[in-house]
Design goal:
Elements (H helix, E strand, L loop, with lengths): L6 H9 L3 H6 L1 E8 L7 E2 L1 H14 L1 E9 L6 E10 L2 E11 L5 E9 L1 H24 L1
Parallel strand pairs: 1-6
Antiparallel strand pairs: 1-2, 3-4, 4-5, 5-6
């Protein structure tokens, strides 16, 4: 079975802040690797809760480039955003399973000052993120 993943639905869902659509793209066993936390998170509930937190702290978020083949398993979505007064550039590296669902989601950001601002803003969100994941 060939993988079919078109980034357009995920890009549209994120840019529209439609977390129901984003969550539907995640495999149950998705592994999320944060740019500011050492240990990866596993599972749809915690990944979706983290992504909701990210959408609360990112301002003026937009994808600016997509890299990958439609039938491939690996995709890179380059984005630009702001956290407070810090401009960030980042990339979502996605791997999709045979069913076309995202089973690996790795985020990288730059510059260091932006990563620090992101870490601080997400740290302030983490109690809420943990509650959301537990109630899912």
């Amino acid at each position: 079975m060939k993988r079919r993943f078109r980034a357009a639905p995920s890009v549209a869902a994120v840019e529209a802040r439609d977390m129901h659509a984003v969550e539907a793209l995640l495999a149950e066993d998705v592994v999320f690797t944060s740019p500011v936390v050492h240990k990866p998170y596993q599972g749809r509930a915690i990944t979706a809760a983290i992504l909701r937190g990210v959408l609360r702290v990112f301002e003026d978020f937009r994808y600016v480039k997509e890299i990958g083949e439609a039938d491939g398993a690996d995709h890179a979505l380059v984005f630009a955003t702001r956290v407070g007064d810090r401009e960030l550039t980042g990339c979502d590296f996605l791997h999709v399973n045979e069913a076309g669902l995202i089973d690996e989601f790795t985020v990288m950001v730059r510059p260091l000052s932006g990563a620090r601002a992101l870490a601080e803003a997400m740290g302030a969100q983490f109690e809420r993120i943990a509650r959301e994941a537990a109630s899912a």
